[in-house]
Structure formats: structure tokens, C-alpha cells
Write a structure and sequence with these properties.
- The protein is an alpha/beta fold and 396 residues long.
- The chain has 2 domains: 240 residues, Type I PLP-dependent aspartate aminotransferase-like (Major domain) (Aspartate Aminotransferase, domain 2, 3-Layer(aba) Sandwich), CATH 3.40.640; 134 residues, Aspartate Aminotransferase, domain 1 (Alpha-Beta Complex).
- 39% of the residues lie in helices and 14% in strands.
- Strands 1-9-8-5-4-2-3 form a 7-stranded mixed beta sheet, with helices on both faces.
- Helix 4 packs parallel to helix 5.
- It is globular.
- The relative contact order is 0.16.
């Protein structure tokens, strides 16, 4: 099967095609050369995207920027955290998250993450005293216990920023992820539910945070007047905040906007794809796919699972190799060289205490992309290849 299987393997790297509706707008923009979000007095594609995205999430304000990393950084700056402030983040996240903390001149405090990819609440509670902010990553779309997190943070007066890069369309107790904390940040990078290659957006209900973020994003010389409302807040902060120039440009917005009406369908398809493969993997003794928490309705475009009974790194690496010969690329987070999701590779943070629970999880946690466009036959191919690869390794 290996050689033929690899040849027949589905392509899991391409995203869904950009809707045809984007082409006319892109052609118009290219013909006019009007790519800067602040050229037009009103109705620029970026401004329209912000209004549509805020309505989609049920938020008062949205600000489109160059990346989710930029949104995270601006969120921390908008909170006006003092230099050196302690910011709690999960130890299982992408390197851009601790990097945003560093850029904001704050100190990242890593919190243990369990085998279900979610924050360990005992470690979180122990590290919360003295924190100025919590930046909670819903890594790969896995939502930690947001009821417990928000209760602890509200009681301590600690603001929460949500890194919802992987969670557009996820719902917690009927509320959209990204709207539970003070600010929610989303990604439009190619491997997310909505694809613009790059790009990000933040949402908030707080007018002061919105105004500060807008100005710092690069709304110079009263370009903030092209954002709705908040005029008194903008005037207060004019010329008092640095400009980081992290704006989104109109071409990106033109690519994103026609995809927003597709989100509900993509979420439904992504959930089906994930659960279809998860059911097959969980029926095999070699795998464990952690279930969602009770209040969580996920929007996945990938699947994560733990290897069971793979006692050595050599066995886990052999599983990766066997899966690859069958045409399925598997990332074991802790075994992939220089993986940006392994906390020990964040050397820019300086010396950090070891996190044994998170380390153990990362050494056996696997990641496979499942784009929403895959067919049931392609999903079955992936599940069968993974099971066959594990069987082969354990058979010796």
C-alpha cells in the first residue's frame, strides 16, 4: 500500500478556493491602485470588513490588521500594561504568542497544559496572583475551561485577551469564542478557517481599548475619523500613542469579505471531518483523541491525537515515518525539529522552568491537517493510513 497509497493521498495543504465574488473587487482595486485603507473617505474594503466581522461576532468594534500576531501585540499595548508586567500564556501555543508578549515589553509566564491540550487549572490558579493579564490561546481550536478562567480573572481584576487564531466559529456556552475576554484576536493566515494568506483582526466591546488600538495600528493624522464612533476617545489619544503601522490593506479585505458568508458551512464541514476521523482513531488502541469540553462547540480544520503505548521517541518517530510512506504527514509537536509550538524552542524568553506535564504531552501529541474541502473518501484514506502506520510500528 505504501507507494501506491502515497501517490493517492489527498492534498491537505491547499485551502478552499477564494470565492469568485472577490475577483471583481480585486480587479477594481488593481485598476484604481486604491489599496490603502485610508484613501477613501468611507466604504473602503477594510472598513466594510470590520463592520461585517463585528456584526458576525456580535462585538461593538473590530480592527483589521496585518496579522493575528499584530492583533495580540496591539491588544497588550491597548491595555497599557507596565513594562515587565507578567502575562500568563499556555505553554502549548505558537511562538508568535510569547513573541507578542516580548514585543509589548512584558514577561511571559507559561502555564502547564494537560494531555487534552487545555490549560491545567491548578497551575493556572497558582500562577495567577501577581499577573497583570492573561493571554489565553485556544491552541488548534481547543478551548480551555473558560468559565473557570473568567471567574478567577474577574475575581482578581485581571483582563483576559483571547488568542482565537484557530477558533473562528467556535462557541462556548452559546457565546462566540473571542468575545469572552476584553479583546479577541483572530487570524486569516492560509491555514485558518478564512484564508487571506496573512491578516488578522481584533474585536472588543470596550471603546477605550478600541480607540487606543486603532491609533496605534497606524491611524495617523486623524485617520481615526474614518472609524465609526469613539470620536471623543480618539481625540483624547491623538499624538499621545506610538504608531506601529500594522494596518490591513484593501486587497486582503477584498479576499476575506466574500468568505464570511461561507463560515457557517465551513465550520459544519470541519466539525464533521474531525469527528469522522476521530471516531475511527478512537476505535484503535494506539490513539486517543481528547473530546471537547461540555460547553464547547468546536470549529476544527485539523485533528490532534495522542499516541498510546508508544513508550519511546524512536517508536513515535517510526510512526511518523510509516504514515509519511502512506502519504499522510504527521507532526509530533515535540519531535519535530525546531517546532515553534514546543516551548523549549522559545529561547528568546530566556531560562524558563521546565513544564513536565506539557513536555510529556508534546512528545506524543500528533497533528494532521483536515481542510474542510476533503471528501469522505479522503478522510477515510487518512484515518486508515494512520491506523496502518501505528499497527506496523507496534507489530515490530
Amino acid at each position: 500500500m505504501a507507494a501506491d497509497g502515497a501517490a493517492l493521498a489527498p492534498n491537505v495543504y491547499d485551502s478552499e478556493p477564494i470565492p469568485e465574488a472577490a475577483r471583481a473587487e480585486i480587479d477594481r482595486l488593481l485598476a484604481s491602485g486604491d489599496l490603502f485603507r485610508y484613501t477613501a473617505p468611507e466604504g473602503a474594503p477594510v472598513a466594510l470588513l470590520e463592520a461585517e466581522f463585528a456584526a458576525l461576532l456580535g462585538s461593538r468594534y473590530a480592527l483589521a490588521v496585518s496579522s493575528c500576531s499584530a492583533a495580540l501585540f496591539l491588544s497588550l499595548k491597548a491595555l497599557d500594561l507596565p513594562r515587565g508586567a507578567r502575562v500568563l500564556i499556555p505553554a502549548f501555543t505558537f511562538a508568535a504568542v510569547p513573541s507578542a508578549v516580548v514585543h509589548a515589553e512584558c514577561e511571559a509566564v507559561l502555564v502547564e497544559v494537560g494531555a487534552n491540550y487545555r490549560v491545567d487549572m491548578a497551575d493556572f490558579a497558582a500562577k495567577l496572583p501577581g499577573a497583570a493579564c492573561v493571554l489565553i490561546s485556544h491552541m488548534r481550536g481547543h478551548t480551555s475551561d473558560m468559565d473557570a478562567i473568567m471567574a478567577l480573572c474577574d475575581a482578581a481584576g485581571v483582563p483576559v485577551v483571547e488568542d482565537a487564531a484557530h477558533s473562528l466559529g467556535t462557541v462556548w456556552n452559546g457565546r462566540n469564542i473571542g468575545t469572552l475576554g476584553k479583546i479577541g484576536c483572530f487570524s486569516f493566515q492560509s491555514y485558518k478557517m478564512i484564508n487571506a494568506g496573512e491578516g488578522g483582526i481584533l474585536v472588543t466591546d470596550d471603546p477605550e481599548l478600541a480607540a487606543r488600538a486603532v491609533i496605534m495600528s497606524g491611524a495617523y493624522e486623524q485617520n481615526w475619523k474614518k472609524h465609526p464612533g469613539l470620536q471623543n476617545s480618539y481625540m483624547l489619544w491623538q499624538n499621545k500613542l506610538p504608531l506601529y503601522n500594522m494596518r490591513m490593506q484593501n486587497l486582503s479585505a477584498a479576499v476575506i469579505r466574500p468568505q464570511l458568508p461561507e463560515l457557517a458551512r465551513r465550520v459544519e464541514q470541519g466539525r464533521f471531518n474531525h469527528d469522522h476521523v476521530a471516531d475511527q482513531l478512537n476505535a484503535c488502541a494506539h490513539f486517543d483523541v481528547p473530546p471537547p469540553l461540555g460547553p464547547e462547540s468546536r470549529a476544527p480544520d485539523s485533528i490532534q491525537f495522542n499516541l498510546v503505548g508508544f513508550d519511546t521517541d524512536a517508536e513515535a518517530r517510526a510512526f511518523q515515518a510509516q504514515a509519511k510512506t502512506r502519504g499522510v504527514s504527521v507532526q509530533v509537536f515535540g519531535l519535530s525539529e525546531d517546532n515553534a509550538r514546543a516551548f523549549w524552542n522559545w529561547q528568546f524568553l530566556g531560562d524558563q522552568p521546565d513544564l513536565p506535564q506539557t513536555r510529556a504531552m508534546l512528545m506524543r501529541a500528533c497533528d494532521v491537517r483536515l481542510p474542510t474541502r476533503l471528501t469522505r473518501d479522503e478522510l477515510d484514506f487518512i484515518a486508515e493510513a494512520l491506523i496502518a502506520a501505528a499497527d506496523q510500528v507496534k507489530a515490530g
